[in-house]
Specification:
This protein is an alpha+beta fold. It contains 17 helices and 32 strands.
Length: 621
């Protein structure tokens, strides 16, 4: 499916700082784009000045496809430079535009301006495109170049991001909107230009869920799906590739802003709103069946001459992309006990809509804890809970999500004998904790088993329900470290021995394992790990020195400095604790012209001095 953006730039003041920030994000994803200059009905409008601003700020050639048409001091239409037509909108009072062929007799001045603009357009394109330049040379005249050839050249150059087409209008007065939509269809990539990657699904439906919205009027969650291939039908069974689960579609809608129109099918290239999906979350990839996905993997592997492995194919289709680790957390409290259940349900729904939001329950404090990507992220969650669920929840102070890791290997055992009612519960468990450096341990690989003959024989006889209880106990035990109560990472837990008395409940087994884990962590001692971020700063050269000096005071390691057009790009690694409030500081240093992007890199050990500061921040003393 074609991916692109159309850009709205206000005629006054032109390209602003925040526009540059979003433009850089589009550059990162190599998206073709078109610029729409709005508010041309203003008396101080100057399209040529705005075009110059686009070229200067974005450092890319622009081509003006339309000219403004003003009658009696009022903006009433646009001139199509390619077709030499005047498009009038009747002051925006009607939806239908009137197209009038310009001629030297009917509109002599406007016709002359349009001809000059058409010649300039072809000149600009031929400077960047050899094929069009050769046609101009062979024909000996700009006038002999057909509009069809110019459109083909524009389509190619826009797709390759070598030029930016500019159209204009007044959204408030409904002037130029129709021609903007025509330009989108004409110049930007269509769904037929979709990646060959998803054509490997052949006739089968394939799409990605990019948004989940809960709508009580329509029976619960609505899943917005972008169709890469095939057709999706009402009542169809689908396979969630990301979660390896089947699901079933109820109704299908097409969204027109807030209006949802029910349909029976939606084809490739469109966005479908699917009702009835119970397991799908934002970011999931969907298809018709497991068989369809397996076949697509084989075709893709063959086309790319790569080994047919699950990991390779999953990477290509974006299945194995991991959700970033949350680096901030805070407690959340309902306004009353009666609101607790409603708050819990709201958080369940919000997690489905936003997989980067994590919700946990602290057994010791009895608090619900939110973890997210930043202060703004968690504030937005709170605002949504208030506006959408009518719950005025309170957020606790924002804290950095530190981690702890054991310093040395420790082995020990614990026996628990207790009587609950008439049932005697008896557990003996022996565990060891083993620190692992410079390796990220997945949740599934934390538990290891002793392979010594006697111990291995004992472990092999453990019932599955008891093994599940052991894993649950380990999870709870590693959830809070002894130093500042943070999650334990970079550790293996080895099971050496387990004895369970007849009738002993799984709850007793889990709690015994948890007690032993905490005992082992206390014996081993822990150190604090802090989240370190990959930082990318894009700024004009005149502000670079000030930004660099500021970063040097934030324990920053500079990895690389490059140029991107007229801007400098700095790549660095910085502890998250040093970047609190950085967006405000950067805006001040650069007068709002710089932007930055953060991505979690790793957890890293702190020095003793830094650790003392972290403990003080967490404990408050």
């Amino acid at each position: 499916m074609g991916s692109w953006l159309f850009w709205m730039v206000q005629q006054v003041p032109g390209v602003e700082a925040q526009t540059l920030t979003v433009w850089r994000q589009a550059d990162r994803y190599n998206l073709p784009r078109i610029v729409y200059v709005n508010k041309m009905d203003r008396s101080d409008s100057n399209i040529h000045m705005c075009c110059a601003s686009v070229e200067k700020k974005f450092d890319v050639p622009s081509v003006l496809l339309q000219l403004p048409h003003v009658e009696n001091g009022k903006f009433v239409g646009v001139v199509d430079v390619l077709s030499l037509e005047l498009i009038q909108y009747g002051n925006g009072r009607t939806k239908d535009a009137i197209r009038i062929n310009l001629s030297e007799k009917s509109y002599p001045k406007l016709f002359e301006e349009a001809q000059k603009a058409r010649v300039k357009l072809i000149e600009q394109l031929s400077d960047c495109n050899d094929q069009l330049a050769n046609q101009v040379i062979n024909s000996g005249s700009f006038d002999s170049i057909s509009s069809v050839e110019v459109v083909k050249t524009l389509q190619k150059m826009v797709k390759e991001r070598n030029v930016i087409p500019i159209v204009l209008g007044s959204s408030y007065k409904n002037i130029g909107i129709q021609s903007l939509m025509d330009a989108v269809i004409l110049y930007l990539p269509s769904p037929n230009d979709r990646s060959k990657l998803f054509s490997s699904f052949e006739d089968h439906f394939c799409g990605r869920a990019f948004k989940v919205k809960h709508d009580k009027r329509r029976g619960g969650p609505l899943t917005f799906v972008r169709l890469y291939n095939g057709t999706v039908k009402k009542g169809q069974k689908i396979f969630n590739i990301t979660r390896r689960e089947s699901d079933q579609i109820g109704r299908i809608y097409v969204a027109y802003a807030d209006d949802f129109r029910e349909v029976d099918t939606v084809e490739n290239g469109n966005i479908a709103v699917l009702a009835g999906l119970k397991k799908t979350m934002s970011g999931d990839l969907l298809t018709t069946s497991q068989t369809a996905y397996d076949k697509a993997k084989k075709i893709t592997s063959k086309n790319l001459n790569m080994s047919h492995t699950t990991a390779d194919a999953d990477n290509l289709f974006g299945i194995s992309a991991k959700i970033p680790e949350p680096v901030f957390f805070c407690s959340i409290e309902p306004p009353s006990t009666a609101s607790q259940q409603a708050l819990d349900q709201a958080l369940i729904e919000l997690q489905r809509e936003d997989p980067s939001l994590r919700v946990t329950y602290n057994l010791e404090t009895g608090q619900t804890v939110l973890a997210g990507m930043g202060e703004l992220h968690l504030e937005i969650i709170r605002d949504r809970i208030l506006k959408e669920y009518k719950i005025d929840a309170d957020l606790g102070p924002l804290q950095i999500a530190y981690r702890e890791t054991p310093l040395v290997k420790v082995e020990d055992s614990l026996r628990v004998d207790t009587k609950i009612g008439n049932v005697k519960n008896s557990v003996l468990v022996r565990l060891s904790i083993i620190p692992v450096e410079d390796t990220v341990i997945s949740h599934e690989n934390i538990l290891k088993f002793d392979k010594l003959p006697d111990n291995a024989s004992n472990i092999a006889s453990i019932f599955p329900k008891h093994m599940q209880a052991i894993r649950q106990g380990i999870d709870v035990g590693l959830n809070q470290g002894p130093k500042i109560g943070c999650q334990i990472i970079n550790v293996h837990v080895m099971l050496h021995w387990l004895e369970v008395g007849r009738g002993t409940s799984e709850t007793i087994i889990s709690s015994t394992v948890t007690q032993l884990i905490r005992k082992l962590l206390t014996e081993a001692g822990t150190c604090i790990l802090e989240p370190v971020m990959s930082l990318e700063v894009v700024c004009p050269s005149e502000h670079f020195s000030a930004i660099l000096a500021d970063l040097s005071r934030r324990r920053t390691s500079i990895n690389n400095i490059t140029h991107r057009g007229k801007n400098k790009v700095l790549f660095a690694t910085t502890p998250l604790s040093e970047l609190l409030g950085y967006s405000t500081d950067l805006r001040t240093l650069s007068s709002g012209t710089a932007s930055f992007a953060l991505e979690f890199l790793e957890y890293r050990k702190m020095s003793s001095v830094e650790e003392e500061g972290a403990i003080k921040n967490v404990r408050g003393f």
